[in-house]
């Protein structure tokens, strides 16, 4: 049984709750950390959210999520950079030490070109990230998203990017939902750890059948991912941060969220 000292929850997980409700409920349930989806800020200024989070006794783990770099036209790509730079500022005001990057993809942009545009996007963000003291985490996404969400799909790719930038402000968010299937996973997690690049660890589960590519993730223990095994790999590789519960699920959002949060806590103890 896990204790809750490493439990963090992403605000998207309990999407029906406004941020002020979510952070109070997480703290009451025994969670110690929160990752804030920018959409959940609503009208609350990041600095005000930071005060609420501190007052609840939670630690801000990350701001979610920037990136989405590729686009066919340069003007569009530049606008994304501007938005990303603003998000770095917002992350700093929120007191988030980390900004998660969903690197992006666009079906109008060929893969090789899109991957180059991702590198250009990261390069454009790193100076501002360093100035703000906000680290960036590349989150490789499952290959089913390579058309429209991310052209970075494996831990190997994320590690390669980290190695080529060699910047202390750039690392990786390991999300079991996206990488569990990878035959190289253990080796690439080990490599990521030896580079000092495991910045975050996200958990949920893979359902069979998955009825919606985006919003049908499972609660830990409901699916086929061996989460304790993957967690043992990231910890063997030196990671000692939070296990962040990040679940998008129409089915689970439709439940009473108090009851759902109680299930999250139980699942965390047993299946993470
Ligand atoms: Zn994630």
Structure at a glance:
With 272 residues, the protein is α/β, with parallel strands linked by helices. Helices cover 45% and strands 15% of the residues. The protein has a single domain (7-271), classed as TIM Barrel (Alpha-Beta Barrel).
Please report the first level of CATH classification, the CATH class.
Alpha Beta
Number of domains: 1
Structural class: alpha/beta
Strand content: 15-25%
Q: Uncertain spans, ≥5 residues at pLDDT below 50?
A: none
Mean pLDDT level: 98
Q: How many alpha or pi helices? A: 11
This entry's quaternary arrangement is single chain
CATH architecture descriptor name: Alpha-Beta Barrel
Strand order of the largest sheet: 1-2-3-4-5-6-7-8
Order of helices and strands: EHEHHEHEHEHEHHEHEHH
Please give the alpha-carbon distance between the first and last residues: 9 Å
Largest sheet: 8 strands, parallel, barrel
- Radius of gyration equals 17 Å
Annotated CATH topology? TIM Barrel
Shape designation: globular
DSSP helix fraction:
40-55%
Total strands: 8
